[in-house]
């Protein structure tokens, strides 16, 4: 009889509880992954992320082959077809045990329930493991055993649990027999080149370790400046499970000699960002309505968002007349990536300056981001729109001009993505229109599509109403 490991968003061999547990059994071991093009379309998987998945699948196939573990990449249309296809595969290969790391999305939970029922009916034992978070969703709770609705107390409880229980990084499984051959696979889904992002666990772990060794201590001072390479850029890899959050903790500890548990300690700010990621994962499980296009705060579903197709298009294309917003959106469109500070700025602009429903921005991000992931993306957008957990008060509205002046003072990032503003002096780069009228009247850069002061007043009225 055969044991089977089912890979999903955990495309690695290190710190993989399901794979490691399966490797301890003496029977033959195989692995499987399902490509689901129609499901990906339904969930707005970005083509650049699809390309990253394809490249990592081949890296994973080679890593498993080196361990003597056959790896099958199968294509079905969507999640609904997986139970029957998996049952057929298990029958063909005489699978007696299935090892899986748990998932959290509503579509994924429905899929997994169907698979469990199918396996129960055919006598296959399924073993589920928690690998997505340091602590499984539902295990960090208030004193009354409820999920936290605000980040700060969640963070404190999470850190207390970490200090008391620690964490475990599961070892890579031992090789099972000889090295197998691996033939590269392709996937039938629109793809955009992701080659600027290395794949393979060794390369990604090296990137993580380099960040912790060279930039972790300065992260707090550098993280908000998009022209400065001060962030880790590992979110795409966490999203696909090429590395785990536990490996991030290990890298912090290796670089600092200990984990930073106190605010102000070196490395704490980056650790806190990882806790934000955990918070949104836990939140999605505890309050699944947020993954059904519903606001976390039900009363905010009554906000009468406005609609202007021309303004939404201008936002998408980076033609709003606000340089920091436009540079951020053009960077996203061309690379599939956006700096976190910029994500907050453009989300605030869409919802508080253009008064357009946050759900449209959330979907646009998912359609373009290489690190698009439901929990973090939804959590970030609802935070910016003041509809979510731990949301900024509705009257806290980012001024796109002052945000640009503060975090891209000389316009280095702006000029990288807005070549039409290349000649504008730094003094005028955040409000270039008067300068352009005098010195470059033929320039194509658009005038601001809204007045921020007026838009702010309208946004306050929308929320107050």
From TrEMBL:
Coiled coil: none annotated. PROSITE patterns: DNA_PHOTOLYASES_1_1, DNA_PHOTOLYASES_1_2, PHR_CRY_ALPHA_BETA. It holds the Pfam family DNA_photolyase. FAD binds at residues 219, 231-235, 270, 273-280. GO terms for molecular function: deoxyribodipyrimidine photo-lyase activity; DNA binding; FAD binding. Keywords: Chromophore, FAD, Flavoprotein, Lyase. Involved in repair of UV radiation-induced DNA damage. Catalyzes the light-dependent monomerization (300-600 nm) of cyclobutyl pyrimidine dimers (in cis-syn configuration), which are formed between adjacent bases on the same DNA strand upon exposure to ultraviolet radiation. The lineage of its organism: Bacteria, Pseudomonadati, Pseudomonadota, Gammaproteobacteria, Aeromonadales. Residues 1-134 form the Photolyase/cryptochrome alpha/beta domain. The record marks 305, 358, 381 as: Electron transfer via tryptophanyl radical. Its cofactor is FAD; (6R)-5,10-methylene-5,6,7,8-tetrahydrofolate. It catalyses: cyclobutadipyrimidine (in DNA) = 2 pyrimidine residues (in DNA). GO terms for biological process: photoreactive repair; response to light stimulus. It comes from the Bacteria. This is Deoxyribodipyrimidine photo-lyase. It is an enzyme of class 4 (lyase). Belongs to the DNA photolyase family. Belongs to the DNA photolyase class-1 family. The keyword Lyase applies. Binds 1 FAD per subunit. The keyword 4Fe-4S does not apply. Its EC number is 4.1.99.3.
């Amino acid at each position: 009889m055969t044991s089977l490991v089912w890979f999903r968003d955990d495309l690695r061999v290190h710190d993989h509880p399901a794979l490691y547990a399966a490797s301890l059994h003496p029977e033959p071991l195989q692995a499987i992954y399902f490509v689901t093009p129609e499901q990906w379309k339904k969930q707005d998987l970005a083509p650049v992320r699809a390309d990253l998945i394809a490249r990592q699948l081949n890296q994973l196939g080679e890593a498993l082959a080196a361990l003597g573990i056959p790896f099958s990449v199968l294509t079905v249309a969507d999640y609904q077809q997986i139970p029957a296809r998996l049952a057929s595969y298990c029958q063909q290969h005489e699978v007696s045990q299935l090892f899986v790391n748990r998932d959290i999305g509503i579509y994924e939970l429905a899929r997994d329930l169907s698979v469990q029922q199918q396996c129960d009916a055919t006598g296959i034992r399924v073993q589920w493991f928690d690998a997505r978070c340091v602590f499984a969703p539902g295990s960090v709770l208030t004193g009354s055993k409820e999920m936290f609705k605000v980040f700060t107390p969640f963070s404190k409880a999470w850190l207390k649990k970490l200090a008391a229980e620690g964490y475990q990084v599961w070892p890579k499984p031992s090789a099972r027999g000889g090295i197998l051959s691996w033939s590269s696979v392709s996937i039938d889904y629109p793809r955009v080149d992701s080659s600027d992002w290395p794949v393979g666990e060794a390369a990604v772990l090296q990137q993580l370790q380099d960040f912790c060794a060279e930039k972790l201590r300065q992260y707090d001072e550098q993280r908000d400046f998009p022209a400065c390479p001060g962030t880790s850029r590992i979110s795409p890899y966490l999203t696909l499970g090429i590395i785990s959050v536990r490996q991030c903790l290990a890298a912090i500890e290796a670089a600092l000699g200990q984990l930073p548990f106190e605010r102000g300690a070196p490395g704490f700010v980056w650790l806190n960002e990882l806790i934000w990621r955990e918070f949104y994962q836990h939140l999605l499980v505890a309050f699944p309505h947020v993954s059904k296009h519903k606001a976390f705060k039900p009363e905010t579903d009554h906000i009468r968002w406005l609609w202007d197709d021309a303004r939404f298009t201008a936002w998408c294309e980076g033609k709003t007349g606000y340089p920091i917003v436009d540079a951020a959106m053009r960077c996203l469109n061309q690379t599939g990536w956006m700096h976190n500070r910029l994500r907050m700025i453009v989300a605030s602009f869409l919802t508080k300056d253009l008064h357009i429903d946050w759900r449209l921005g959330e979907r646009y991000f998912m359609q373009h981001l290489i690190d698009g992931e439901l929990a973090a993306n939804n959590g970030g957008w609802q935070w910016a729109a003041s509809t979510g957990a731990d949301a900024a008060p509705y009257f806290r509205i980012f001024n796109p001009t002052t945000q640009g002046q503060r975090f891209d003072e000389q316009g280095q990032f702006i000029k990288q993505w807005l070549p039409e503003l290349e000649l504008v002096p730094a003094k005028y780069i955040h409000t270039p229109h008067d300068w352009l009228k005098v010195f470059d009247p033929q320039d194509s850069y658009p005038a601001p599509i809204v007045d921020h002061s007026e838009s702010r007043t309208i946004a306050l009225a929308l929320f107050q109403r």
